Batch of 2 targets.
Target 1
Amino acid sequence: MSIFECKALTRNYGAKTVLDSIDLTIEPGRIVGLLGPNGSGKTTLIKLANGLLTPTSGEILIAGKAPCRATKAIVSYLPDRNTLPGWMTIAQALDYYGDFYSDFRRGVAEAMLMNLGLDRTQKIKTLSKGMREKTQLILTMSRDAKLYLLDEPIGGVDPATRDYILRTIIGNYSEDAAVIISTHLIADVEQILDEVVFLREGQVMLHESVETIRDEKGKSVDELFREVFRC
Amino acid sequence: MLSKLIKHEFRATSRIMWPVFLGMLALTALMRFSQLLLNGGHIPWLLQLIGVLLVIGFVMGLFALAFAPLVLSACRWRDHVLKDEGYLTLTLPVSLHQLLISKLIVSAVWYAAAFIVGLLSLLIAASGWSTFQYVPDLFNDVFTAFFGMEASLRSHALLIVFELFCNFVFAVSAAELVVYAAYSIGYSFNKRKELWTVILILVFFQLAQFTAIAMIGLFIQTFPDTWISLDANNLPTGIELLLLWGMLGELLFCAIGYAVTWYFTTKKLNLE
């Protein structure tokens, strides 16, 4: 069964169509780059998968089910902003995840935090932007989820942090899980992607494996993206 | 999951509510101490001024105590669900019903605690320290009087106490759900979310007042005999009916607030 499936998925904001009858299937075990310029519908698609928005028409399925409590239990989501309350300490954030997600691996999270030299008694609001993003990523990747939805996980952080984030993603997802990464920074993530989905004005322009793009088109994903989305 | 939501809601709110309670009790103690000092001989004008300011602060503190749980609950709804934290809260494997119920339960507990702290503050303010030794006797007298009542009167008293408790819980829940509804609608707009919310809160509470007046009128029309020939025999029944009527009104507002909040948070959610 596909872990992520869209069938004629459409989402409008008022009169504007943000996603236009999308059909897309993603199988377990794949790392997929969701790529497209600003306003192409990447974040909307991820929000729909998390049940934060409802489709205008069509359907979106996670492991065969429309977004609901059961799907939220198997999806690990990293939004493109800080969502942890500032008053919480890192230890309280671990408690929070541990209480609500049965697949949360506290030991894995603590080991990663220790590697970063983060003090568990530190409050979220006292962390730098980069540290906050890393903490959030560690919490997200410490779950043994079936689907990871990462919205701009490397946006706005320095290159060294980007490398750390990508290593964390690669090192912490299980083989039967799928990872969907939405980003603009294609050159940085290209090395870890199995497939790419190009979105333009709410439509899927291309859904191809990275290997095929390299072998058949003789280009890197970054080069192809620049060619396709040339202004 | 409900118990976990309640646990974390207490964790988030207790860091505000405990200091509020302790602050109120400290203010009361200070005010009481200043009054004892002012009762002495010649007092410099500065100390007199401080004493007056402490009395004003005490009265304002009581008002703040009455609204603190509601204000905190409203801010929590906004921050925890409708702003950035909502990305985490609304992707937890819990239903919105569980989320709403956990917040209502926690808020009702804080309201009960605020009621006790307010009562304690008034007791400290209104009486000398020595009066506290009579508090156990007061409870003893109340229980003795209760068990000395006729069986039928005792059942009426129990029912009235139960209805008062339900009225308290439903009134607190109705106020909160109406505020949640206003926030959920206000935050579904793209711009001026806070302004829309404030306008909606004012409109909803005005509507609640009109409805309460209409319901009292309807009550008098529906049960005219109870009030025309009011005497010691039918007084308990009259009070019970009135409290029941109040509960119906509160439940009506709970239902409307709940439905509107649920609809706008699930179907019209507009996280930034």
Target 2
Amino acid sequence: MGALAWTMMGLALWHFTIFLPDRCWGGIIGAFLGCVFGAVLFGLAIHGLSVPGQEATDLATTLEGVPGALLGYGFFYLLGVRREAAQADEELPAT
Amino acid sequence: MSDRQRNLFVLLLVAGLLIASAIVIATKPTKLGLDLQGGVELVYEVQARAGQPPPTNESIQRAIEVMRERVDQLGVAEPEIQQSGKDQINVALPDVANLQEAIKQVGTVAQLAFYDWEVNVIGPDGKPAPDDPQVTGGPAAGDASSPGALSLYEALLRAEKRPAKIEPDNSRDGSLFYAVDHKQKKAFGLGEESRAEALENVPPALREQADVIEVKPDTVVVRAENRDGTAKPDKWFVLKDDVALEGKELKDPEQAFDQGPGGSGQPIVTFQFSDKGRKTWEQVTKQIAERGRNSVGILPGQSADQVFQHFAIVLDNELVSTPYIDFNQNPEGIDARNGSQIEGGFTIQSAQELANVLKTGALPVQLELISSSQVSATLGQQALNQGLVAGIAGFVIVALFLLVFYRVLGLIAVLALGIYGVYFFALIKAIPVVLTLPGIAGLILTLGVAADANIVIFERVKEEVRGGRSILSGIATGYKKGLTAIIDANVVTIMVAFILFVLATAGVKGFALTLGLGVIVSLFTAVLATQAILGALGKSRLIGKPSALGASKPKGDRLRLDYMGYSRWFFTASGVILLICALALGSKGINFGIDFESGTRINVALEQRVDENAVREVLAQEGLADAKIQRITGTEEAKGAAQFQISTDNLRPAEVTSVTNALETEYDLADTPSSTSIGPTFGQTVANSAVIAIIASLLVISAYIALRFEPKYAVPVLIAVMHDILITAGIYALVGLEVSTATVAALLTVLGFSLYDTIIVFDRIRENVPRMPRAAFSQIVNRSLSEVIVRSLATSFCSGLPVLALLLFGGETLQAFAFALLIGTISGTYSSVFIAGPVLTAWKEREAIYRRRRASIALDNGGLVPAYATGAASEQVDVKAGRRLNRGQRLTAPDDPEKVSREEFDDMVRDLHADPAARRTAVAEPPKRVTKPAKPAPKPEAPERDESADALPEDTVMPRRAGSDGAGKPKRSSSAAAKRRGKHGRHR
């Protein structure tokens, strides 16, 4: 149940990334992966790699998805920015 | 074959099948499931006996055979016993009202063991005494009248003294515990695996003074034989647990008659042995015979038959038979090469019973009841009525919608729906499919699917007719173009149904089967039959005018929105909904029903008008004060003055009976109670199978979409599906509705519906991509969505109508199912347009080719990219009619000029020049840079594509003539039209 809550939170937050510049690695799909996997992985990390069951899932469990989604998104965003920079470097004329 | 011949053939086929269906419907009975006619359903998990290898498929099938024979003895009409999954057996017993009795008769697979009697009966000193008839019983061996027979309490005291000893020939390797009351010298229960369980058999009032006796391994306490066939005697023997032969070594026990040489003609029981069993049997019977012979003369005055020694057949700690070995007839024991037989004192019935016992006990497996349910006949009839009303209502509202929206086409679609209904009902009877409540739900939903296929085609036909084609040509082209989308969408639904059928539990299987069958039948009726009918009506006045098809006014412009531009607001809306759902999930959780959580649910109808508190008082006396009691309302057909649903932890069948008996005593039951008990194993199986079904569906569907479209199309589809499933789950959490196996089926159906809609949208995008070679991807998607939005809304609305019928008329079970479907259908329609489309756009626009197009368009439009592709005069550009892609061909591959012959092209040019208003085939007007007039004709061979130019040679520009407003209806010169007659459907 915890995994479902994190996934749902990650997916919900991903929808708002449409307002941010499309600079994620992989574009909107990269942002999606970042948010969803970020939320789930972060949740797993703080629960010692275990998934809370039905009884153990509460509001706090769901909110644990928020930092994970943001971190995941940030990770993919940074990857995208670095890749863009690398591409720009490649396109510069050799001096 | 000409079109006319083809139509005639299809119509004859339809008529022939209708006649055949009518015959099947008239002659074959409908098999109703237990939920519709009442009865008992039991689900067993097959487990290995202790120390035995895991059950094989063969052993499960053997268990099923045994159960079937036992069920046949119950006289149950049309029982259903089948394997479900890897290790489960489903037993459906229609019209059986006594759950406990059914479980006892069907599911008790006893453990059978053969003992050498005299050497194992334990005497007062805790040791065997083979020569003491006071212990063994002599000729009365095993009988309740034997001097060695004891009360259970006495037997337990004797057994308690024996030490534990674990040997390979023991029937069990653990202790058994019996509760006793030393004051009353009474024992309770028949042996449990723990002290706590043993104490549960003691009435609460006596529990404090009760003690527990442990019977250690190597000792068994067996009930004396019941020779007179009356009640089981309370007489017991203590045996050393040295099993001579296990039941699993027996083969083919049968009741027969003693008709061999010198045979008496009396009923006997025959059986065969396995190789190992045969050797053991010969050895044991030889020892018994020798011991008998050696016993002659030990005691004075004893005749030979008085010293015959015995073997005992023990079934689940009860002596079934104690035959003797006649050492005169069998001095070397019994030659078991041709099997063996038990004779003497049998009636046919008692011989049959023993044979059945041997068969049952010979099973090498153990059966654990993991789910049991009982439905009263009244509730079954009520569910059937509700299902039928929902079905009729679904048909009527879908028919009304089709008639209002598509007029004559709608009438034909309604006719096709009627034909579909007849075929489908006949198919259900012919196969035969056991019709259950979820099955009826599947049937009702396929009405929507069948109508959807017609809508997809009819919208295409309307588009073509509005685009200026003749009615006949429009029909032919509409069917041709609509078919790809229908096949793609229906293949996906069939895949989901198949996966559900393979992986899901029994209740959902019925739904999956009817859904899958329905989709296949609907493809035939909605596509082939309607096309043949329309083709036959082609020249009739009935469809002579576009208005008859509902295609009189173009409505597309009203829905030409900037879907991609607005998408961020729709994303926000989805994000907010999901956020609320996620918070609801965290704070309220999902209300899982007993299907997942395990438990018992009892539905009772009481004669007296009482409230929940009165029922609770009765339940409290049964130790169920915490039970959830809910009054059921709105079931007018239910009997009694008050109906209640009682939900508790998982109860054993005896406890369920105890509860209903208590309610019967207090308030009188108006009807047979219905109950469902789900064990934790079954709930876990259901949950696992649901997760596996969802994952498998997603994987298979992704692979299919990646193959049929391109891999990038699969990802937005998955995101849209995820969006729909999570929103449906979230709304369940929000409103607190119970999640059952039916909800899982609904979720998987949502998955299918969501895909259906997304595929319809993506199919048009796929079609438009090569037709708009200069447009930005967002413009292509906007264009595609504006073209299919009516179709998408209409199909979803049409799918939603039967769901609405289920919600309104389907009764409690179907309503919960329909609610998930309704949410899913709404979410699916929304996500296919506002989630999947924008995600695909955002991803595709990162591709180099679309980035270049976008930059070029922005350059020409002052830095802005218009929502829709525009031409040189900032007017909207029309697109060329598409062409069907061949398998494996790239979506963006250039058109093959050979598809249109030189002669046809010349015709088209003459048509266009003859009529200044003709701009029907005007094509991708390029941006301002293009100033050349149209090329006169394309070159016959396909030129190489120039990626940098991003324009293809067939992008022929047909500049508008002066004075043309572009809105006029296209006309053809009569000569050209005459030449083109009969070539309808050709893409230009």
